[in-house]
Write a structure and sequence with these properties.
Layout (H helix, E strand, L loop, with lengths): L14 E2 L6 H10 L21 E3 L5 E4 L10 H6 L6 E2 L4 E3 L24 E3 L6 E6 L10 H15 L12 E2 L2 E2 L13 H4 L14 E10 L5 E2 L3 E2 L7 E6 L7 E9 L8 E8 L10 E6 L20 H6 L4 H9 L6 H7 L4 E4 L16 H11 L3 H9 L2 E3 L16 E2 L2 E2 H11 L17 E4 L4 E5 L23 H13 L4 E6 L14 H7 L19 H11 L6 E5 L6 E7 L2 E8 L13 E2 L2 E2 L7 E4 L7 E7 L5 E7 L17 E4 L11
Parallel strand pairs: 1-3, 16-17, 17-18, 22-23, 23-24, 24-26
Antiparallel strand pairs: 2-3, 4-5, 6-7, 7-13, 8-9, 10-11, 10-12, 10-14, 14-15, 16-30, 19-20, 21-22, 25-26, 25-29, 27-28, 30-31, 31-32
Helix pairs in contact: 7-9, 8-10
Length: 678
């Protein structure tokens, strides 16, 4: 075994340390995070034998990986210069997974570009089409100057007709929410120093340019197609949606996006991506996908040493007083660990069930269109998040926090940001474009996609058509989905001959939700903080939507075989059935949040015990942990759907069934066979 030799760094601070247990896993992880892997490098003394140390040396930052089975530990002095954070992913070959920044590169002046620092997103994939999303950026990495922050603050002051002294600014309460642009979550005012530490530090501003996309099938191979050049217009935050048509079913495609300065022939930046189209409706092929919900910038969990033990990244940034330090720290945030973990599993696609960003839970709320776009810029300039989007296509569903604010509905405003503006920004920042030519459902946000003979998915829209949550529950006009969507859903479900029919939804349908609201006496006993907590009125499991829920379960979904609900929003995972666990005609699986920091437990809320007599419930989280749901549909004489719950490290968390496996196996023979849980 080779003697340990520390790699030659450009400087000691340029260090990322991922720990993995095999050369193959090391290579996979580096590919997922956009890192180049060198197996032979005399400078750093590579040894890729089993049990040996493996060193990575990309062009500007050095990496180190040490197998856990027979590690060659680096000297203590070397460890003192770096730092390590770990997470377990035993089921899928990676024992320890991490990418933690020792420090960022020195703050350099970023070139004019145009670059593509917020990456590519591939979405709305069918058997013959897909949508490519990109954005032209001034810089090639996140981070803005203080002069840009000051300009943004001045714009916000002007919109709100505020004075120049921010220390005296308060966000007055108004209908539909409060304007908290100058307040933290605790309601305290921001100081003059704190306002320069605003969460916009992780944003990347846009710039004009032109984009051209080339795509080609590679499995099986075929000729390349190059699109025309498209202007990157400021009216949509310098974003562009490009639809790829006439694709082959069940084919892997590679995509290259070239960004140009106007009228130049040589691209200023290039970024690549790949995806596989859906198999044709008659094709028998396994399909594997994942489902996540709820991610906030403040709750990133793949990040630098500065955040050790810190659950709120944005609040941490507010405490930093030095401008260069604040920018350096903001650039040390890699993103959410769950993304490279899911990417290792190589899903055919991801469904994000909403709350992709949180406009109203960031210490400072996004209360204008400019601020709302900053939230998206930060989220997808994070390396781990951005790199996942290059490898896995995503179907995005919007919910309340990434449209306007908590429990919102059409017609409301939050500061100067209206619901209609929030809706447009969601479609501007995701591959789900509002433009009908790019949509798979003629501009409608609800849609259905066939993935081979055995799987068809339906993606519902639960925001745009809903009545006010506060409307009388017994009013026959009260609706969440709207008559048009409900009629479409009922018709397409009955027209489908897919073996498994899966409903993807931002809000739970069967539930359970959190425990019932405490009585006035219980609230008093729990303390003043809980005295004015609003009732739960936002999802289909709440009494406020009992009419629509009954309509869906008793009529629309009645008699539809092999129907499965996959939902999000709740911050905890559960498995339930309707009408009961003893008679599971429909089963519902709720995924967890994208990080443990963002998770809650489904067992207790506000100290009020959850009733354990719910006869619809099989299992739910007993600890506060994030995670995702994976689904594998296997063809054959008796097709099956295997549903698994994972934590943010990928480990399976569902209680063991009688076969010793942590999964739910559903067979397609006219009824469900749910694993007995002990």
């Amino acid at each position: 075994m080779a003697k340990y030799e520390p790699p030659a760094f450009k400087k000691a601070s340029d260090t990322i340390v991922p720990l993995v247990n095999s050369p193959a896993s090391s290579k996979k992880l580096c590919e997922l995070l956009g890192m180049r892997l060198f197996w032979q490098n005399p400078i750093v003394g590579i040894n890729d034998s089993p049990g040996g140390s493996i060193h990575f040396h990309p062009s500007s930052v050095s990496y180190l990986a040490i197998p856990i089975d027979k590690p060659v530990p680096p000297p203590i002095s070397f460890l003192k210069q770096t730092f390590i954070a770990t997470g377990q992913l035993k089921q899928f070959g990676i024992l320890t997974l991490c990418a933690t920044l020792g420090a960022c590169q020195s703050l350099q002046e970023q070139t004019d570009g145009p670059h593509q620092a917020t990456g590519l997103k591939i979405g709305e994939v069918t058997s013959t089409s897909a949508v490519v999303w990109t954005r032209a950026t001034y810089g090639d990495r996140p981070g803005v100057s203080l002069s840009e922050i000051d300009a943004w603050l001045e714009d916000t002051r002007r919109q709100f007709k505020l004075g120049s002294d921010w220390d005296d600014v308060l966000g007055p309460a108004g209908e539909g929410g409060s304007m908290v642009i100058s307040q933290t979550d605790e309601g305290r005012r921001l100081s003059k120093k704190e306002r320069d530490r605003i969460v916009q530090l992780g944003a990347v501003r846009g710039v004009d340019g032109e984009v051209q996309v080339t795509y080609r099938p590679v499995d099986p191979p075929g000729p390349a197609v190059t699109t025309e050049r498209y202007d990157m217009r400021d009216r949509r935050d310098y974003t562009r949606h490009i639809k790829l048509d006439n694709l082959r079913p069940d084919t892997k495609y590679e995509v290259v996006s070239n960004m140009y300065t106007n009228n130049r022939s040589v691209p200023a930046s290039t970024i690549d991506a790949s995806f596989r189209t859906a198999p044709a409706s008659e094709a028998e092929r396994p399909v594997f996908f994942t489902v996540v919900t709820g991610q906030a910038y403040r709750n990133v969990d793949l990040r630098g040493e500065e955040f050790a033990g810190v659950s709120d990244a944005s609040e941490h940034l507010l405490r930093i007083t030095d401008p260069d330090e604040a920018l350096r720290v903001s650039q040390s945030i890699l993103g959410h660990r769950i993304y490279p973990v899911m990417a290792v599993l190589e899903p055919d696609f991801l469904v994000h069930t909403g709350d992709v960003v949180y406009y109203d839970h960031q210490g400072i709320s996004a209360t204008s269109t400019r601020m709302a776009r900053v939230w998206w810029q930060r989220m997808f300039s994070l390396r781990a998040n951005r790199e996942f989007c290059r490898k896995v296509p995503i179907y995005f569903i919007k919910d309340d926090h990434d449209t306007l604010m908590n429990d919102c509905w059409p017609g409301q405003r939050h500061g100067t940001l209206s619901y209609a503006q929030g809706r447009r920004i969601f479609h501007e920042q995701t591959p789900l474009s509002l433009e009908a030519p790019l949509s798979i459902n003629k501009g409608k946000t609800y849609r259905t996609v066939r993935w081979g003979k055995d799987l068809q998915i339906w993606i519902l829209e639960t925001r745009d058509y809903r009545s006010p949550n506060t409307m009388d529950p017994d009013d026959p006009k009260k609706t969440m989905l709207g008559d048009e969507q409900i009629d479409w859903l009922s018709r397409t479900l009955r027209e489908s001959d897919a073996t498994f029919k899966m409903i993807l939804c931002a809000v739970p349908i069967i539930g359970p939700d959190r425990p019932p609201e405490p009585t006035p006496e219980e609230k008093k006993a729990l303390g003043v903080a809980n005295m004015f907590r609003p009732p739960r009125i936002d999802n289909l499991t709440n009494p406020t939507w009992r009419r629509e829920r009954a309509r869906l379960l008793d009529k629309v979904f009645a008699g539809v075989p092999n129907l499965i609900f996959l939902v999000g929003d709740r911050h905890w995972k559960y498995h339930s059935a309707w009408p009961s666990r003893d008679n599971p005609r429909i089963q519902e699986f709720c995924c967890g949040s994208t990080s443990d920091y963002h998770a809650r437990t489904g067992l207790r809320m506000l100290g009020v015990p959850t009733p354990e007599t719910d006869d619809t419930l099989y299992w739910r989280d007993e600890v506060e942990q994030g995670g995702f749901v994976s689904v594998r549909v296997e063809p054959g004489r008796s097709p099956t759907a295997v549903v698994r719950f994972h934590d943010t490290h990928g480990a399976l968390v569902y209680p063991r069934n009688t076969a010793g496996r942590r999964e739910v196996l559903i067979r397609a023979d006219g009824k469900f066979h749910t694993a007995r849980i002990r």
